[in-house]
Amino acid sequence: MKTLYLIGFMGSGKSTIGEMLSSLLHVPHIDTDNMVEEVYEQTIAEIFQNNGEGTFRMYESEVLKNTPVQNHIISTGGGIVERDENVLFMKENGVVVYLETSFDEIAERLEYDQTRPLWSKNVQEKKDLFIRRQKLYEKNTDILVHTDNKSAIEITEEIKALLK
Ligand SMILES: Nc1ncnc2c1ncn2[C@@H]1O[C@H](COP(=O)(O)OP(=O)(O)OP(=O)(O)O)[C@@H](O)[C@H]1O
Ligand SMILES: O=C(O)C1=C[C@@H](O)[C@@H](O)[C@H](O)C1
Ligand SMILES: [Mg+2]
């Protein structure tokens, strides 16, 4: 199997679905956000605070480039599409699955979240980011899955069926 890359906005469920899909398909899972924290020994919030978003994007691309291109499920960070080199890498090497989620649903899921630096911005900034990103996800996807009002298990099963 070619590697699957899960993309989508913060809170769309990339990490959650990646784990579940990995168990269901018996394929190893890597989460680029977790990998960045492990390799660079800082939390994402610390990297943003101490070194800035540009440094985080550099680390993120480095981690992505080192993930296996066969037989893996990769949960990416919400901003992976910000860099063309990441998009090219994913498109060339595997299948890109976009977890499409509305802004309102994301706002519900992340209501109490304090771990995502870009989710602590004001509502207008978050909406602007969401609209700009939506276009990037849509443009660069092989498979689009709507996630609103579906459980993580339902979404996982849907992706499994779409891969057949
Ligand atoms: N289908 C779903 N329905 C309801 N809640 C969900 C669903 N999928 C994920 N969640 C919840 O939403 C929150 C964010 O999910 P998750 O961390 O998987 O998102 P993510 O896409 O990996 O975000 P990020 O880009 O920031 O890494 C978690 O609390 C998770 O339990
Ligand atoms: O949407 C984004 O830019 C981000 C999403 C998260 O997955 C993390 O990669 C980080 O918080 C940045
Ligand atoms: Mg995640």
UniProtKB/TrEMBL annotation:
Principal location class: cytoplasm
CDD domains, sorted: SK
Record's keyword annotation contains Translocase: no
Binding site for Mg(2+): 15
Annotated pathway: Metabolic intermediate biosynthesis; chorismate biosynthesis; chorismate from D-erythrose 4-phosphate and phosphoenolpyruvate: step 5/7
EC numbers: 2.7.1.71
PANTHER family linked: SHIKIMATE KINASE, SHIKIMATE KINASE 1, CHLOROPLASTIC
The protein's assembly and partners: Monomer.
Protein name per the record: Shikimate kinase
Organism, as annotated: Virgibacillus litoralis
Gene that this polypeptide is encoded by: aroK
